[in-house]
Amino acid sequence: MGILEVKNLNLGFECECGFRQALYDVSFSLECGKMHALVGESGCGKTISAMSILKLLPKTAYITGGEIIFKGKDILKMSGHDLQKLRGAKIALIPQDPMTSLNPLYTIGDQLLEVIKIHQGLQGKDAFNKAVEALELVQIPCAKERLKAYPHEFSGGMKQRAIIAMALACNAEILIADEPTTALDVTIQAQIMSLLKNIQSDTNTAILLITHDLALVGENADYVSVMYAGRIVEKAPADEFFNKPEHPYTLALLKSMPASKRSEKLQTITGQPPTIQQFINGCKFHPRCSQCMDICKNVVPPVYYVGENHFSACFLNKDDNCSQD
Ligand SMILES: Nc1ncnc2c1ncn2[C@@H]1O[C@H](COP(=O)(O)OP(=O)(O)O)[C@@H](O)[C@H]1O
Ligand code: SF4
Ligand SMILES: [Mg+2]
Q1: Which residues have their alpha-adjacent CB atom under 5 A from ion ligand 3?
Q2: 0.85 exceeded by the pTM?
């Protein structure tokens, strides 16, 4: 049992041309001390799936079905007051652009102290010491001095560290990291990922890592869910994801992975994922799938279990289906 279960989440947008569905029966769970990666090309629904967990969605978004259970309670049914308590305190977001979380008008120390005062009930020197400790924990050197700095005086990597420090300071049980290293250079990316990994094991935090970088997934994740056009098309433990991938879209993603270890020639996936305005019958990957069959054009493939905690939503896996306890 996970600390958070997203079950059959359906979501759509009210657009100029009418209502358009963007998420179809999205289900996944997060476990304490584990990292679950959500991967897929841009526009596949990763961010809106994550933002649904915090109920931080655009005004035009409507959740039309499903549940998001956190410690036995459905987040989707929570009052505004309970949601406020949940955000930041229990479930923290590490965004792609750290400036969206940091206020440029206040020092890092002011912002960190505010979090500590609210969530840990500390005041004065105790709160200050805790803030220093939090920055040290995320390996920011000269922490005492750095508390006086404004966000613009921090590099991108340091801003992300400061946001992670804030999440830790309020003892968040779940961290949602949406492309947390995309804006950073490769060395800093690796440092931030190893920081997240340490936090995960030291504090038993559950992490949802959203990324299109499969190398990060290979090095860090425990489970992987692959999204395509608003649906999870394959889910697997990370080792099986790399060693025994099933879904043609997963295979295409892996072939496009610029990893030195892979001997095959790098291939890009031809075409683009559909927008929510473009309705595609049957399997939404069929226009791009080299193994497309007639049935794929008309029928949505169900989920077939191909191993323990490993499924693929592809008709090619029909005969592999095994029951899950
Ligand atoms: N405010 C919005 N109004 C209409 N469509 C949106 C809005 N936000 C996102 N979408 C659409 O929802 C789909 C999923 O978006 P998103 O979750 O941001 O994808 P990802 O994070 O995987 O790149 C995309 O097709 C996107 O165009
Ligand atoms: S269901 Fe058909 S079109 Fe879809 S991924 Fe499988 S083989 Fe390709
Ligand atoms: Mg996104």
Answers
A1: 46-47
A2: yes
